[in-house]
Amino acid sequence: MDLSPLLEWLAIPSVSTDPARKEDVRRAALWLEERLKALGFRTELHETPLHPILYAERLLEGAPTVLVYGHYDVQPPDPLELWETPPFSPTVREGRLYARGASDDKGQLFAHVAALEGLEAPVSIKFLVEGEEEIGSPSLLPFVRANRERLKADAVLISDGAMFAPGVPTLTYGLRGLCYLEVRLFGARRDLHSGAFGGVAPNPIQALGWILARLKDEGTGKVLIPGFYEKVRPVPQEEKALWPALDEEALKRELGVEVLPGEEGYGPLERLWARPTLDPNGVWGGYQGEGSKTVIPKEAGMKLSLRLVPDQDPEEVAELAEAHLRALLPPGYRLEVKRLHGGKPVLTDPFSPPMRLMAKALEEVWGRPPVYAREGGTIPVVAELKEALGAPIVLLGLGLPDDNLHAPNEKLDLVNLEKGVAAIRRFYELLAASPA
Amino acid sequence: MDLSPLLEWLAIPSVSTDPARKEDVRRAALWLEERLKALGFRTELHETPLHPILYAERLLEGAPTVLVYGHYDVQPPDPLELWETPPFSPTVREGRLYARGASDDKGQLFAHVAALEGLEAPVSIKFLVEGEEEIGSPSLLPFVRANRERLKADAVLISDGAMFAPGVPTLTYGLRGLCYLEVRLFGARRDLHSGAFGGVAPNPIQALGWILARLKDEGTGKVLIPGFYEKVRPVPQEEKALWPALDEEALKRELGVEVLPGEEGYGPLERLWARPTLDPNGVWGGYQGEGSKTVIPKEAGMKLSLRLVPDQDPEEVAELAEAHLRALLPPGYRLEVKRLHGGKPVLTDPFSPPMRLMAKALEEVWGRPPVYAREGGTIPVVAELKEALGAPIVLLGLGLPDDNLHAPNEKLDLVNLEKGVAAIRRFYELLAASPA
Fold it and tell me: From CA A7, how far away is CA A92, in angstroms rounded?
């Protein structure tokens, strides 16, 4: 399979969260538009306040219709110094393709483009591709609502996730949601000398510590935001029976840890797939340089994300979290909370007709039936597509849990890219042959 | 008074903690050496592994001898964007001189140099000036121990502190000590996607929060390190009677706060001068950029300082703190503690003969007697000079509490510089005239 077009696409640093990369994000959209045009698609680039939405369609009267969703934007590459090869200089080593976006999501989306080369099965195909997935899809959600009719399909096909394990084809039927906050704490009006003022000055770093300790319980791993667990739907026993076994020892080895810390009373797989979590994703304040500086900083801050499960709502959780943060604020401090983005959790039918067809295609290509899994990550548009279009959704992850998503040395195993292309093509053939 | 030499000196960015500034630190030493040579001093530049120690002497047979201590290094200027004029472009505005080092300590040390211009009183003067004060004086302490005899003096004179308030000449008789640690926490072996791993992964930022919350009690402001307060010497009632009154409302206005948070059961002045404290001075981890990145970082860290009072010992406190940090470490994390620097607390005799002479000089120049104060900051060499030389120590602060030490827009009020020069000159005259 010819990787050169994908290498070219991955070389474009389409970091959607970085205002300095706006033009690069656009270039990545135009690159895909050209590619789809060459495959006979009619394309439309929809401008938004941030990054354009690419819609493309290749329709066949009377044929079943599939809507493919993906995103051409990527996470920031920091910390740069930890990459073995530069994030935007795609490199193949030992059967793996290394680059920011290799797995999330350009590489996986590319499989859907490559699957169309020489495809003869009569199917109508629509592509809906955004450049704001990594920042919460703010433009795509209203676009989907406004374009229900045009986006209509018999199945929605999405590859923006991971297989359960190497060699195990996986169909995903659930995703967690997300609520992402930026929290800033302010103390004195200026930075202070810790000798001259230590003992009377508010210290926002210390206050951040007090707050963090009361956001998540150290002993039980429970999130301490009042009301947080109220809408969490328990997992029925028959659903758990579907789940594959998690190799905890392998996971520990992979992460380089001796324990898998998490919420008391739940196993690791349930904690990853069906329990909500809270994690600070960044923290800053005061002096971070070499050596020592005896300063009491006037402010400190953190990024905080909560992964949500059905039926938690990102807006509601943001309200609860903000109220709790305000309640925890010690006297003498000021607090600012910014809601950066959110996404609803979603559950789909694991045995819908297109899921059954994809299961068959996967079994033919991999030589074993797929496992059924939820995923801990979030694709904000999936809940929206489910609500707006009412079509069955097929989540086909082609990545792997060790793909270093959102981390240095992101990669995609080429064997999964190749088998993915074959499975997607076979899916179209099965769909074209199935009774309407 | 001619400020141009001082402006020239302040323009040299002698940041001792920054390896990239090594040559600049040296230039600042050489600048002072030239200046003292021009005043008839015999000078010696002593090389150390980091920044040179400048020793200079101008001796008169039979005259009383004064040792002047100061430092030519400065704190880092970050955050740069908050300076109204650049930190190393000294600027005079409304009777104040703005520059990094204007008050701490080049400006104050310059007063001691300027006081010698045209001085006729017969006194022997020695200068001991280092470039490592802001990083804990690692070279100076052994130097003092090894050179006791040469450094011998009838009084040690130091200006590296602040007056109690504007217009209030101040003699300082106590300083807090310092124990400064860098703490780093490690979780998984690599950065992780918070969706794919949130629920099973250690989060070093969260763990830092749990630890911070158990280093200092939110309710009482007490440091929670076991044994921390054991050697703290209570302040006798008669000493407190010496203390000036603190204008708490003015301090709150200055800091822009509504409360002065601190240790329960002690007034603000006692907390600043005679109670130990703990303050995180920096914190970092994960994503700090614009927007959102859903990462669980593999590590996080903080800088932590403890201000100490008699009879706490920095080494002992570092042991206690490190043991407590290790005890607080949740399972699944690894901890690294680096001791960056320390300094012993010190108390001197407020009514020694040279202190009495300086009190007289101050009263003549300012038209009011000085107040007697302790200071919350640390000058590591003072305890060492006291022990090694046994000479009375005169701490004459010419700065002010709002000088923005270790913060943006550091400044020195020129009126204090000028009166300081006059008082120091008058002190030498009184000393020369006093019976041996």
Answer: 9
